[in-house]
Each structure stands twice: as structure tokens, then as C-alpha cells.
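REQUEST FORM: STRUCTURE PREDICTION
Request ID: SP-0412
Submitted by: Lab K.M.
Chain count: 1
Length (residues): 349
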Amino acid sequence: MCKELNISQIVNNHIVTGDQRTLSHGDAVVAMIINGLGFTGTPLYMTPQYFEDKPIAQLLGKEIISTIELNQLEVIDDNYSYLEIGSNYNDVNQRWIIVHNKEIEYVKNKGTIKKFDINSKKDLKAKIRYEKQKFACEIDAIKALEELKKKLLISDVEGFKLVEHKRYSTRGKPKKDAIKDVTEYTVLVNITSNLSKFHEDKKRNGIFILATNELENKSLKPQEILNEYKNQQKVERGFRFLKDPKFHADSIFLKKPERIASLLMIMTLSLLVYSALEHKVRKNMKKNNLTFPNQKGKPISNPTMRWVFQYFFSVVLILFEGGAQLDYFNENHEIILECLGDDYEEFYD
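STATUS: Completed
RESULT:
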């Protein structure tokens, strides 16, 4: 498909390859697309000199969102409200539309409450385990208390009380005149939930930022920006592979803005190739009344390319003296190749 779309030649027409390069820029881009689609074993994030220092997954407006009060927002409809502010993020003048969605807030609040309840129970269990421990001296008890404070998820230690315990140094039944000569300590701890963190999380629920470099409000109104955002579902679905743990988007770190742009270009080209393949397969399946089994074995005419890729991973090329043959290659593979055309079938002849 990269060859069919002529990606390598288009890139080479815009970037001149130096004499010292053995691989053209276009071929390098095609290699990265193949990498991005998962056809090589080394994921992009394994190139530390290229991806470093700046996490992609960081929330740009986290600090701004925490300062927003809902009564500052202008109502659009029963569900949406917004606040418009100016920004110069990354030295680019922008308009940021702070949007609040009541439906999203309701759903996320339930998750926040559930998470708060789970973490409260975990903190209580940690407190009980600590109070059961016995310490040889007060210093050890206080040191362990500091470790407890670090482990608490949403709670703070409001106070504690050292309790002294005496016991016999020998085992078994003590003699009549024996004295409890060993001192041990336990600690009673009072913890309280940190509600400020809870309210901070709830405050951010349902709020997100839309940004544009169109600075004229008359040319692009906040309502229009929101409408365009809501209508981009097809694009969002195309980039859903970012959430796949195999892509490791949260593990990619970038240092320079131009590196971010480069990565986005490769991701967009990968999506282009992926979508073109999927469109071609589905179009020809419908045209020729063909089907392909889904993950449950049910015949369908609209398979995703992700599933097709996984299905083809089972094909093995066996090389032997005097020739080669394909193993685990069946009629379903042939259906996909028939839909893609002669150029694709040549690789498997």
C-alpha cells in the first residue's frame, strides 16, 4: 500500500537525499510506517535518543482547569458550557476553549467516588497492619510510621499514641518471682481522609480544553469549535490504536516540538496506509460478495485491518534447499489477497 500510495517518492521529491545516505528519506519514512503498524519487533519508543524528556500524555491545561469555577462558564445548552481564554503555549498565540460537559462529569464522578472508597479501604488496612506490629524501641516505631505515611493513598496521619508493653524475656510458663524485663511498643494511629484531593479530582471531571490558532472569534466561534470537535469521531476512531498498550504512547518522550511534529506525521501516514488498506478490502469484498471470518469464526464482509494483520501473522515461510513454501496459509488469506490485487498476491506466489 505504501508503494501504491507512492509515499516514498513523494517524500523524496520534497527532501533531497545526501550522497552519504544509503537509505533515502522516503524509504526511511516507509520503514517507520511499517514499524508504526506493528510489522517489526522494535517499537518506536525503543529509540531513546529520538524520544526523550517530554511525555506525550501530559495534560497541557491541568493547572488551568484546577482554577476554573463553573459559575464562570457561559452556557451553550443543557449539557455544555464554556470559558474562552488566550494562551501562548509553545510560543504560538492560541484561543483555548475550556469546555464543561455535564454528562461526562456525572459518569466520571461515579468513578471518582468508587476510587476514593477503594483507596480509603486500602489505607484502613495499611493502618491496621501497622498497629499490629511490635517494635523494640520508640525510634523504630516512629520510623515505621513515616513509611506508613508514604504508603497512604488518600489519608493523612492526624495523630498517634505510643503504647508500651512488657513481656517476659524467656519462653514458656514464667517462674513465680520472674519479672517482665522486655519492653515493646505498638502504635495507635488516627488517620483521616484527605478530602481536598477528592474534591480536586471531582472538579476536573467533565472539563476539557479545545485549542485553535484562529484568533478571530467572528471567524470561528466557540460553539463552532465544539461542534467540529464532536463531529470528528471518525478521526478519533482512526487513532484509537494510540490506546493499545502495544503502541506505548504513554512511554514515548519527546524533547523538541519538531520531534513531536515528526512523530505525528508518521502516525498520520500510518493511519493513512491502514485506512486505505481497510477501505480497499471492504470495498472489494462487498463488490465480489466475499466474506472473512471474524475472531469468533463468523463470516463478515467488513473486517478491520488490525484483525487481518493478526490473521496473517500465523503465515510461516519455510526455506529449504532448492525452494520454499508457505505454511498455515489458507483460503481466507487468499480472499484478502484477492481483494488487494495482483501486486499483493505476488508476495505469496
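NOTES: DSSP finds twelve helices and ten strands in the chain.
Reviewed by: T.R.
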